User: Which sequence fits this backbone?
């Protein structure tokens, strides 16, 4: 298992041919209080860099992009009841959705934790 | 970011940063969007008292040979009855274009000697140009750009301000304890001269305080020293005013919208309804007496998904309106919105739909304010 990051502040945890996706602690801090997450339904095809979910803070709606292409298998039901999990546990219980990867080579361009932390520090 | 270099800073910029604010560009200034978080700040203001820096807003002083001459001129710009505005009283009004469209909304205070206006930050330079172009000889218009403006809002605001030893500037001005909602006067405190109105933009009781820029930080620190007071950013200011049903200029009010369409006919004083004589009076009064095609309404939204500005409003397959402000209402724990809809569909209880990213969500027209106001105007029945 390994966790990788995008420049759009999504994380992806890969296990075999499937992966879990969420947004980073930095991202939730920038968004502020999350009040709703518009999640993709199971079966939806997502494309690397394409819109996959929308996270609504008090102030604004923000797109969340798919770190890799694939087919959504499940979205996080806990976020429906408690969207603030995105703020309190962004890289844990506040995960957004799971997918099966259509092209594992798309992972190659993503950052590891050290690279992402350096990227955030440069912002 | 490159744009940040063009941003002007406000007198309290250093204080905001020390308090941990996240600063964002707004109306050409770097301004605090939030400190600890919008929901916490929103709730604090509803329960205690929030301190807002609204120094981006335009503070204008209008003077003339006498109050009647100034009132006359203001009545040529806006539909208020300024001749009947008593000294130390405040009125909400609207700066109107010749076609009756809203150029800005503003607060007008009769200080006893002159008129003090507070206009929106994003429109203040256009407002000044508009007024200068119409200013008769003998009237002066002064932009108080050497003053900051603070707002203290919430149920504890009166208690906190009452602890300050505020001395009326002159004997003809009301004692601070006698300052009612929508009244204002000048007070001396700690060597400062403060222009205080009991008013606000949150649906709560409270004050707006005009203070010389050089003294603004000392005043803000003195207010924040009270346990009931916390700093509140623009994010909560927006959610508070939305719950209070108060329109935001540039969003719910624009030059394409008239006061009647905006459901702000209360700002057209009774005498002005009879006499007209304000910009766009023919069109505005026709709408007032015969109805306008569209109207600003409040929408309660089913479920949890907010509808934002620009979302379209539908009945069946027909678009009947558009959302102009929308978001999450912390006090109601639900999404709410303001929209302009066709007048036959503007009645309370009307079921409508909003298109959000291709999904239809159910919404119902409801009276505003969404959250009951928490102040008493003179003449209100309790």
Assistant:
């Amino acid at each position: 298992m390994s966790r990788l990051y995008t420049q759009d502040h999504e994380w992806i945890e890969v296990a075999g041919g499937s992966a879990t996706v969420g947004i980073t602690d930095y991202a939730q801090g920038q968004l502020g209080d999350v009040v709703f997450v518009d999640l993709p339904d199971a079966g939806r095809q997502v494309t690397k860099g394409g819109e996959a979910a929308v996270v609504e803070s008090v102030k604004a709606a923000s797109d969340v992009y798919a770190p890799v292409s694939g087919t959504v298998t499940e979205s996080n039901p806990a976020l429906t009841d408690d969207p603030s999990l995105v703020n309190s546990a962004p890289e844990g219980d506040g995960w957004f959705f799971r997918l099966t990867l259509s092209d594992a080579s798309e992972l190659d361009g993503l950052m590891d934790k050290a690279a992402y932390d350096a990227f955030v520090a440069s912002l | 970011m490159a744009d940040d270099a063009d941003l002007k800073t406000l007198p309290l910029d250093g204080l905001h940063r020390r308090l941990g604010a996240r600063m964002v560009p707004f109306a050409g200034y770097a301004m605090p969007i939030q400190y600890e978080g919008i929901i916490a700040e929103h709730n604090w203001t509803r329960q205690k008292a929030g301190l807002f820096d609204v120094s981006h807003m335009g503070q204008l002083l209008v003077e003339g040979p006498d109050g009647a001459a100034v009132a006359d001129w203001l009545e040529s710009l806006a539909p208020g009855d300024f001749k009947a505005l008593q000294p130390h009283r405040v009125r909400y009004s609207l700066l109107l274009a010749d076609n009756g469209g809203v150029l800005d909304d503003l607060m007008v205070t009769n200080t006893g000697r002159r008129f003090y206006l507070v206009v929106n930050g994003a429109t203040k330079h256009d407002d000044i140009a508009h007024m200068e172009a119409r200013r008769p000889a003998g009237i002066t218009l002064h932009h108080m750009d050497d003053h900051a403006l603070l707002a203290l809002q919430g149920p504890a605001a009166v208690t906190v301000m009452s602890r300050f030893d505020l001395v009326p500037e002159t004997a003809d001005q009301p004692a601070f304890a006698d300052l009612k909602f929508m009244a204002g006067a000048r007070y001396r405190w700690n060597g400062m001269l403060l222009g205080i109105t009991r008013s606000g933009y949150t649906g709560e009781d409270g004050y707006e305080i005009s203070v010389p820029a050089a003294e603004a930080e000392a005043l803000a620190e003195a207010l924040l020293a009270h346990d009931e007071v916390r700093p509140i950013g623009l994010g909560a200011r927006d959610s508070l005013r939305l719950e209070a049903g108060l329109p935001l200029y540039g969003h719910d009010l624009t030059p394409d919208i008239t006061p009647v369409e905006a459901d702000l006919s209360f700002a057209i004083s009774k005498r002005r309804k009879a006499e007209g004589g304000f910009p766009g009076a023919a069109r505005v009064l026709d709408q007032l007496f015969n109805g306008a095609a569209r109207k600003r309404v409040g929408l309660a939204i089913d479920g949890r998904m907010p509808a934002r500005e620009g979302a379209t409003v539908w009945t069946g397959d027909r678009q009947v309106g558009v959302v102009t402000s929308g978001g999450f209402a912390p006090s109601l724990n639900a999404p709410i919105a303001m929209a302009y809809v066709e007048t036959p569909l503007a009645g309370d209880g009307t079921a409508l739909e909003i298109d959000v990213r291709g999904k239809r969500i159910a919404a119902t027209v409801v009276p505003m304010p969404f959250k009951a106001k928490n102040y008493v105007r003179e003449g209100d029945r309790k």
The radius of gyration of chain A is 13 Å. Residues 113-121 of chain A form the longest helix (9 residues). Chain A touches chain B at residues 32-33, 35-36, 38, 54, 56-61, 80, 83 (CB under 8 Å). The longest strand of chain A covers residues 51-57.
